[in-house]
Amino acid sequence: MTILPIGIKLLFYLVGVGTTKDVPFEDYQLSSPMLSVFLNLLILFLILGFIVFLYLKTSLFQWKKPIVKGKDLLYAVYVFFGGKIATAIVVVIIALLFSLNMEEAPQNQQAVEQLIRTSFITVIQVTILAPIIEEFFFRKIIIGHIFTKHKYLGLLFSSLLFGGMHMLAGFSFPGMILYSGLGFFLGLVYIKTNRLETSIIAHGFNNLISYLLVLIVR
Q1: Cβ neighbours of residue 40 under 8 Å, at least 6 residues apart?
Q2: 179, 119 contact by CB (below 8 A)
């Protein structure tokens, strides 16, 4: 066993990942879900570091000091409740028209819920890292730069791409609508405020509520 796996094992042991009992370190075992959590976090931190590098060391993006305003929280609430209600209505209508199965959650959602149940560390991934990275790509890059002169066309494209990327674990039509609907509302927030911070907060708030709901029904 090399130093890196030992370090990973020690980190997980210290924060109590995968066990709630007083298990000696030598008897502590890493499981595949634990490694999956660690690797996901590592990849997201690397991507976040690359984004920071682009902002600070290149001329591709203009660095602006992040500003969080009180109304950002209101936008977050609007996105969560407005987006959930609107997309749920659309999903139910389409499900009734085409006799789709509404009982089973999208596979991406199932995978995320499994990671959440594996360790509380995933709260960092779900509520902080993922919103920052996804908003940077889907809103800042696509709407703010690629579709600069046609923002609403960019909104449509980014929403569908956002939904499609969340279907990589397994496609489901209701899931596509739900994720694309969330992407659409987050895109609207970005366009209306022209501030990435707002859509990041709204995205993080949405994920935080979903995270807490998973823990409650655990």
Answers
A1: 115, 122, 125
A2: no
